[in-house]
Amino acid sequence: MTEYDILVVGGGTAGMTAGIYGARAGKKVLVLEELICGGQIVNAAEVENYPGIPSVSGADFSAALFDQASNAGAEFDFQSVDAIRKEADHFLVDTPSGPIAARAVILATGAKNRPLGVDREDTFTGRGVSYCATCDGAFYRGKTVAVVGGGNTALDDALVLSELAAKVYLIHRRDEFRGEKSTLELAETKENVTVLRSSAVTALQGEKKLAGITVKDLKTGSEQEIPVDGLFIAVGQMPQNDRFSDLIELENGYIRAGEDCRTSCPGIFAAGDCRTKTVRQLATAAGDGAVAALAALEYLQKK
Ligand code: NAP
Questions:
Q1: Catalytic site residue 261?
Q2: Pocket lining for ligand 1, CB < 6 angstroms
């Protein structure tokens, strides 16, 4: 069995940055990604807050990071990780194609989309309900859509969709948005965007596909039905680390690790949105990838 020095779980910004640092240090590095490399940022139409890059699409940023890590020597494989086992002097990372041995592991599993929790959300997923405006927005060209959420993802989605759809409702449960003020202001200048504050989507209508939503005004309690072809849910992310809970401590599902990215298990490090932290940004994910890789290198040196 091939043994890797560092196995990175997750090919988002944190994971690929760890791949660059590990490979550039001359280590044998494998990055395991379940779906496509890039993580959350791959869906951002425009990234304008990454230092040194005034403007880039999330897809281009991810592709450049992938090339950089590959060119540095990091290997990539596309499969899921079911569990990690600790052996005497290495770890065994279980995948559907069998275990992979590694001397150190960096978990950069990010987070998955949080469901809205409205009735029949699952039924309509892929039939009008989507969690990715960049992926699915083109299906709604000239149609009416709604975006629910108040963070940067929802604001970005509303902007992306305003260029495609005839009409976009941006629905948030509070008056104040979490996302960047400048992005909200830009969305509000779009003639085809209507912002509904203090409002919640309480029901979905339609037979085989979504035909409309019920929106409740949380201040007055009144409800209105809005015909929509698409509903884009952007209400945040949830960690997905339960499969590692035998080996490492979790806190509310996030991997307990400080700024040094060290977990409760020596040899396992956590980088990016999957770990306990207050700021989850592209720049901090990249920072974590570097810190985790350097910590892993130090661990390997001392072993
Ligand atoms: P987020 O910042 O956690 O925002 C989630 C939003 O969904 C919040 O406004 C929240 O409302 C709302 N929400 C949560 N549960 C809800 C429910 N059940 N019903 C209705 N609304 C609900 O998530 P995000 O927007 O996906 O962003 C995640 C992280 O990535 C953030 O740190 C963000 O800044 C970052 N990001 C950055 C960029 C960029 O820089 N261009 C782009 C995308 C994401 P409350 O406000 O009421 O809690």
A1: no
A2: 44, 47, 49, 116-117, 148-154, 156, 173-174, 178, 234-237, 280-281
